[in-house]
Amino acid sequence: MSDHPTASRRPIVTPDAAARAVRSFAGLPILIVGDVMLDQFVVGRVNRISPEAPVPVVEFEHDEYRAGGAANVASNVRSLGGKVELVGVIGGDESGKRLAQELEERTIGAGGLVCDGNRRTTKKLRIVTSRNQQVARVDYETDEEVAGTTEAAIVAHIRRAAGQAKVIVVSDYLKGAISRGVMSAIVAIAAERHIPVLVDPKIPHIDYYRGTTLVTPNHHEAEVATHMRIRSDDDAGRAARVFRERTGCQSVLITRGEQGMCLLDGTEEAHFPAVAREVSDVTGAGDTVIATLALTLGTGAPIAQAAWLANHAAGVVVGKFGPATVSPEELLGAIGRA
Fold first, then answer.
1. Among this protein's residues, is 287 annotated catalytic?
2. 8 pLDDT exceeds 60?
3. Rounded mean pLDDT of 268-284?
4. Helix 303-317 and helix 328-336: axis angle, to 10°?
5. Which CATH architecture best describes the domain 6-37+68-120+142-336?
6. Which of 165, 139, 143, 207 is nearest to 33 (CA)?
7. In this structure, which long-range contacts are made by residues 202-210, counting pairs with CB atoms below 8 Å and at least 24 apart in sequence?
8. How far is CA 120 from CA 96, 141, 142, 297, in A?
9. What is the pLDDT of residue 26?
10. What is the largest distance, in Å, between two alpha-carbon atoms of the chain?
11. More confident position, 278 or 166
12. Sign, CA torsion 197/203/206/208
C-alpha cells in the first residue's frame, strides 16, 4: 500500500448516482452494535437566577425522550429507510424499559439488547430552555466493559443478526458494550460473511479496531490518536495515514466539522467541504454520518460516494436540535442543492 496517496480535492459524484443510492436504502438490513443510550430532555423557561446560588431557575414545561448513542445510529438508519437490528446492553431499570419502548415505536429490531441487572442503562438527562439552550447535563451510566455471560450473549446476538446484514456498524461510546472480545467477534463474523465493518471510535479502544473496513474519528480524536495537529487538508491527509497505520483498519474518514471531511481509501485521498447551510446543534452528527455511510456501502457503492452522501446528511442534521435524524426526502433535497 502506498504511503503517498493520490489527493483529490473535488471528488466527482454525480447527483443522479447519489440519488439512486438514496432510493436504494429502502429495506437494506444493517446490524448496529454498540452503546445504546436514552436521552431525556427536561424543557423549561428561565426567568430568574436562584437566590441560593448563581444558577438559573428552570420552570418545568415538559419532558422529551429520544434514543441516543448506538440507538440514535439505528434511528438514523431507520429514518433513511433501512432495516435495523440493534445489539447492546441495558439495565433492568425504567430507563431501559423506556428505551425499548422508543425503539419499538421506531420499528427498530431490539431483540439483541441484553439486559444486565447489575448495570444501569446509560441515560443523559439534559436540562434545556424552551429556546434550546442547555443549562446542565446529568449522566447515569455503568461503563465497565461487558464480560462473562453478558459478553457471550452479545456475541451470540451478533452472530444471529449478521446472517442477514449487509453492513455491521460499531458505535463505540466507551460505555462498556464494546469489549475486546465483542470487537474480535465482530471482525471474525464479518470476515466469514464478507461484509464491511464500520466503526465510530473512541481512542482508548483504538487497538480493538484492527481488521475493520472503515473507522470514522472526528477531528479531535484523530489529533489525539496521531499526536498531530490538523489545521489543513494536507495535515488531515497525513493524520489519516498515521491513524490507519495505528489502527490496522482499511480506510479512514476524519470528520472535521466546519472544515468538512477527509477520506483515505486505499491510495486515494479525498476532501469534502462542509455543506451545512445552518448549524443549530452538532449533537449526534457522527451518528448520522456513519448511518449514511453504512446504507450507501450496503447498496454496493464505493466509499467515496458514501462519504459524499454522508457529508450532505451531516449538513442537514446539524440544523436540528439534539440527537436528530434525516429522511430520504431531506437528503435528496440536499443533493439537489449540491
1. yes
2. no
3. 73
4. 100
5. 3-Layer(aba) Sandwich (3.40)
6. 165
7. 202/172, 202/173, 202/174, 204/174, 205/172, 205/174, 205/178, 206/246, 206/247, 207/247, 208/178, 208/180, 208/183, 208/184, 209/170, 209/183, 209/247, 209/248, 209/249, 210/247, 210/248, 210/249
8. 8, 5, 5, 34
9. 95
10. 64
11. 166
12. negative
- For 192-203, how does the pLDDT look when each residue is reduced to its tens digit (9 = 90+)? 999 999 999 999
Domain boundaries, the chain: 6-37+68-120+142-336
pLDDT digits (tens, 9 = 90+) for 320-333: 766 678 899 999 88
Given the residues 39, 116, 172, 287, the one annotated as active site: 287
Amino acid 2: pLDDT: 40
3-state secondary structure the chain: CCCCCEEECCCCCCHHHHHHHHHCCCCCEEEEEECEEEEEEEEEEEEEECCCCCCEEEEEEEEEEEEEEHHHHHHHHHHCCCEEEEEEEECCCHHHHHHHHHHHHCCCEEEEEEECCCCCCCEEEEEEECCCCEEEEEEECCCCCCCHHHHHHHHHHHHHHHCCCCEEEEECCCCCCCCHHHHHHHHHHHHHHCCCEEEECCHHHHHHCCCCCEECCEHHHHHHHHCCCCCCHHHHHHHHHHHHHHHCCCEEEEECHHHCEEEEECCEEEEECCCCCCCCCCCCHHHHHHHHHHHHHHCCCCHHHHHHHHHHHHHHHCCCCCCCCCCHHHHHHHHHCC
Q: Over range 87-92, report the average pLDDT.
A: 97
Among 66-75, 96-105, 161-170, 283-292, the minimum mean pLDDT is found in 283-292
User: Taking the model in full, what pTM does it have?
Assistant: 0.91
Instruction: Give the model's pLDDT for residue 3.
Output: 46
